[in-house]
Amino acid sequence: IFGGKKARPAAHPWQASLQVRTRHSELPFSHHCGGILIDSCWVLTAAHCIDQTNDMQVELGGVRLDKKEESEQIIPVRDVIVHEDYREEPDALYSDIALLRLKAVDGHCANETKYVKTACLPTVSFTNGTKCTISGWGVTEKGTDTLLEAKVRLIAQMMCNSPQVYDNRLDATQFCAGKMEGGVDTCQGDSGGPLMCASNGTHYIYGVVSWGDNCGKKNKPGVYARVDQFIDWIEAKMRTA
Ligand code: 4AZ
What we know:
The protein contains two helices and 15 strands. The chain is mostly beta strands. The radius of gyration is 17 Å and the shape is globular. Bound molecules: 4-(aminomethyl)benzoic acid. Residues 185-188, 190-191, 209, 211-212, 215, 222 line the site of 4-(aminomethyl)benzoic acid.
C-alpha cells in the first residue's frame, strides 16, 4: 500500500495473507498475496496469485507478519478454483479472481472472533467518487511487516479508459480506484486483497486488487476485479465444490 497508515488490530477482520512454502528462507511460509475471508472455509483472492496448488496457507486475524500474534489463525489451503475466463495479456489481466477452499476440521475452518470475520459480497451498488478502503502487506514506499490501509475513491470507467489513463484496457468486470494525482494505491503483494466500501454501516467487498501500471503514479490508479460481476460464479463454486 502506498500512502497508507498502520491498520489497528481487528480493523480488517476479513483480510487474509496468502502464504506459500519457501525454499531458502528461515520461515517455512512467506506472504505472497492478499485474500478476503467470505465464509468460514472460503477465501477470495486474485487468479494471478495462484502459481501452485499445494503448500499454501492462509493467515487470518493478524496485523504483523514478522511475529506470532495471539489473535492469528493459520489454516492450510485444501484446494484452489481459478476463474475459467482468467486471462493474462501483455498489458492487462481479465477475470483475475480465484477461490481458496480452506482445510476443515469438524466442518469448520476459520473461527469467528473479534479479529476474524467474513466480509459481505456486494448487494448494493456504489457510485463514482465513493471513498473506499484498501489494505494489505504489499510494497510500500518505506517497507514494513505491518498491515497498512488507505482510502481511495472509485473512478468513473470513462475516465479510467481514457487515452492518458488505461486507454480502453479495462472491461466491464473491472474498475479503477485511487487518486488521479497519484500517491495512494495498492502495489505488488496487495493483489488478491480487498477494496471495501461501506453502505449503511455494512462493509462490502467491492473490488479485489488486480493490477496497475506501477504503483502510486499520476494517471495510473489501481485496477480491481469488480466483485458484483462475479457473485453468481462465487456462489456457484461455493455450492458445488
Ligand atoms: C502487482 O504487481 C500489482 N498499483 C498490484 C497492484 C498494482 C500494481 C501492481 C496497482 O501485483
